[in-house]
Specification:
With 283 residues, the chain is α/β, with parallel strands linked by helices. It contains ten helices and 13 strands. The protein has a single domain, classed as Vaccinia Virus protein VP39 (Rossmann fold), CATH 3.40.50. Strand 5, helix 8 and strand 6 form a beta-alpha-beta unit.
Length: 283
């Protein structure tokens, strides 16, 4: 169950969220939702998230890439299978441990580093990456989108690009507990100084055990805030596409499987954006 969210001070967000993801990483690696065995059995298999954006990603063969907030690394491995030389970074040591195990089993040449996003330029080689990649459900764990944009710029080579596929801030603001077909904006759309505190013993994929670390702290960031932060950091926006689908049942009871690893609103799917793809270049 999820206890009603509330805005709270967030001085301890790193430790709270590390514990939250450390508890979930082994269960996610064992879940059919992450298809780890498919990665092991099929050297051409890609995650649904990466596969969705292959036409927009273009040819990444030979690029040096960093995947920020990589979790258990399935998207990172997928990018490596498209030909990029990939590194994955995550705050959760348990997630990094699972990522290294999965990469080993899948015979994927990927480096995984434990660390927080805001420390990435010190942990990795600044101005050395052709590609900075961020996937679904990542930005909401960061309190300051402008600081994040500065990190992205610091990591990119001149001419390098940022590529994001992320849940839409409209989606993050919706009340996901409703049982009718109404879309109700219940939570912040814009970045707030306080964190949105949740107490949740569930997760977004099927798992076979309960969780003990149930508290998490998150933030929303509006599309305008994200774009402006990137522009102010010196990046040039080259793509922004909003999608009416998302790769999990974000609103239980209100969504249908599109048959391609994506879910859409069952009733009038054109009512709200569910995710977006963004690309920006450092000149």
């Amino acid at each position: 169950m999820t206890v009603a969210e509330r805005l709270v001070p967030a001085d301890d967000y790193r430790e709270v969220n590390r514990a939250y993801w450390n508890d979930r990483a082994p269960a996610h690696a064992a879940s059919p939702g992450y298809d780890v065995q498919r990665f092991v059995d099929d050297p051409a298999f890609l995650s649904d998230v990466v596969r969705f954006d292959v036409p927009r990603l273009g040819d990444i063969a030979g690029l040096t890439g960093i995947h920020l907030q990589c979790h258990i690394g399935t998207d990172t491995i997928s990018l490596a299978r498209l030909g990029a030389r990939m590194t994955g970074l995550d705050l959760s040591d348990a997630s990094i441990g699972q990522a290294r195990t999965i990469a080993g089993l899948a015979k994927a040449d990927v480096t995984f580093v434990e660390g927080e996003v805001y420390s990435a330029p010190e942990l990795l080689d600044a101005a050395s990456f052709d590609l900075v990649y961020t996937g679904i459900g990542a930005l909401c764990w960061l309190p300051d989108i402008r600081r994040w944009a500065g990190v992205v710029r610091a990591l990119l080579k001149p001419g390098g690009r940022l590529f994001i596929r992320e849940g839409h801030p409209v989606l993050w603001a919706l009340d996901e507990t409703r049982t009718d077909d109404l879309l109700v904006m219940q939570f912040p759309y814009f970045e707030t100084a306080e964190a949105l505190a949740s107490d949740d013993d569930n997760t977004y994929v099927e798992v076979d055990r309960p969780f003990h670390a149930t508290r998490s702290l998150s933030w929303n960031h509006g599309i305008g805030e994200i774009v402006t932060a990137l522009l102010d950091a010196g990046l040039r926006l080259t793509m922004l596409v909003e999608h009416d689908t998302v790769p999990w049942t974000a609103l239980p009871g209100q969504m249908v499987d599109t048959g391609s690893g994506e879910w859409a609103l069952a009733d009038r799917r054109w009512r709200a954006p569910m995710s977006y793809t963004l690309q920006a270049v450092r000149d």
